[in-house]
Write a structure and sequence with these properties.
Blueprint: H1 13-27, E1 33-37, E2 45-48, E3 51-56, H2 71-89, E4 97-100, H3 105-115, E5 119-122, H4 127-130, H5 138-153, E6 156-159, H6 162-172, E7 179-181, H7 195-205, E8 212-216, H8 225-238, E9 243-247, H9 253-259, E10 264-268, H10 272-281, E11 284-287, H11 296-303, E12 308-311, H12 316-319, E13 327-329, H13 334-345, H14 348-365, H15 368-382
Parallel strand pairs: 1-3, 4-5, 5-6, 6-7, 8-9, 8-11, 9-10, 11-12, 12-13
Antiparallel strand pairs: 2-3
């Protein structure tokens, strides 16, 4: 499995997805090797949660990313990733190569040809989708080309929602028979915060006499935080003392801070118990994305027991059942966002029912053992029938 991020190096949801999937596959008895990017303080190679993790250090000189142009960095990264992957496969047999997004495409293609095994590609998002269909610069168009190449070369393309199946078909011409929808999963137990941590988060972020609304994610335009900030004054009129917490970091943070009015806190990048506690302490968690292939963070908030309000776009509209497991609002519309959040904050019994049904849905439909089983079915669909899948002794579940 090839990924540009993996714990302890996390940038967005992709790294959490790969980590959870790899661990679930290992617990199901499969031998899993993840090759990823190195980060200071991490081991170059280790076995963690039953998964062999190989981390590729960057080659000097460092490639600076300016204006969003990652191509120089990505080229160097793929060279390092390929070298580490070829080292990892010496003396081992593998059934499939599984690449996550375009940043691992070149290494994945080289490894597939070296091993002569099928290639699976998971497309978590597209460059076109991230820019609402507009590819403004040469590097954006090149990334789009690499995504198209990866999809054309892959034996199967995994996407996280029916929305994304339609997107890769429309953008890249991938036949329906080569795409499989395997939704993201959530470890519901992982997102249950301790009461003491929830109380501390409430004390740190909430006002004495008003509700707490939160968001967590990478601060980029397509996440739609600007619309939450535009809705905040209206929400504060309706709920005096209301506070909004924005957790995360990214290139759009400085612009967002200029838009923020009193009552908004930028908490920075939160992980682990800090993020779980913030979600659980919130009276409503908002996902205002303009573009969202899936929206795993909405399920994480639901697992934390928090009612969610989400933009009715992409995968969010599929995974949140309006009026049952959360509420929808029109993307890009601050007034609609404020009205949806008002419906949650103004009726605590309704909010409690939403949160309860959402958490039950997460446990039943989005658990990682089920996601791993579906992923193995995709692997099996491209492997020669006579070749048994490589398995290892089962890792006991704690």
């Amino acid at each position: 499995m090839l990924s540009w991020e993996y714990p302890p190096l996390l940038v967005g949801g992709l790294g959490r997805h790969v980590h959870a999937l790899a661990g679930a596959l290992a617990r199901a008895g499969h031998q899993v090797t993840v090759v990823t990017r190195h980060t200071p303080g991490a081991l170059l190679e280790e076995h963690s949660e039953g998964v062999r993790v190989i981390r590729a250090p960057e080659d000097p000189p460092r490639h600076e990313i300016t204006g969003g142009d990652m191509l120089g960095w990505a080229t160097a990264f793929n060279h390092a990733l390929t070298r580490a992957a070829l080292h990892a496969v010496r003396g081992n047999r593998f059934d499939v190569v599984h690449a996550h997004d375009w940043l691992a495409a070149h290494a994945a293609m080289t490894l597939r040809e070296h091993l002569n095994v099928p290639l699976i590609a998971t497309v978590h998002a597209t460059e076109s989708g991230r820019h609402q269909g507009w590819l403004p610069a040469a590097h954006n168009r090149t990334i789009d080309d690499v995504e198209r190449w990866l999809c054309a070369e892959a034996d199967r393309v995994i996407v996280c929602s029916e929305y994304m199946r339609g997107e890769v078909t429309r953008l890249f011409g991938v036949p329906a028979g080569r795409t499989e929808v395997v939704r993201n999963g959530v470890d519901a137990l992982r997102w249950r915060a301790r009461p003491r941590a929830v109380a501390a988060a409430r004390l740190a972020y909430a006002g004495d006499d008003g509700p707490l609304v939160s968001f967590a994610g990478r601060l980029v335009y397509e996440k739609g935080v600007q619309h939450l900030l535009a809705a905040a004054p209206l929400l504060r009129e309706r709920f005096p003392g209301l506070r909004v917490v924005i957790a995360g970091d990214g290139p759009y943070r400085e612009d967002l801070e200029l838009l923020a009015e009193p009552g908004v806190t930028f908490a920075g990048f939160l992980t682990g118990h800090d993020l779980t506690a913030l979600m659980a302490a919130s009276d409503c968690y908002v996902v205002p994305s303009i573009y969202e292939p899936f929206g795993m963070v909405a399920l994480e908030a639901a697992a934390a027991g928090t009612p969610v309000a989400v933009a009715a776009t992409g995968g969010l509209a599929e995974i949140v059942d309006h009026g049952v497991t959360g509420v929808h609002f029109t993307p890009g519309d601050p007034i609609a966002l404020a009205d949806a959040v008002t419906g949650v904050l103004g009726d605590r019994e309704h909010a409690r029912r939403l949160a309860l049904q959402a958490r039950l849905r997460v446990i039943e439909d989005y658990n990682w053992p089920s996601i791993a089983e579906q992923t193995v079915a995709v692997y099996d669909s491209v492997r020669p029938a006579a070749v048994p899948l490589i398995t290892a002794p089962r890792v006991p579940v704690a």
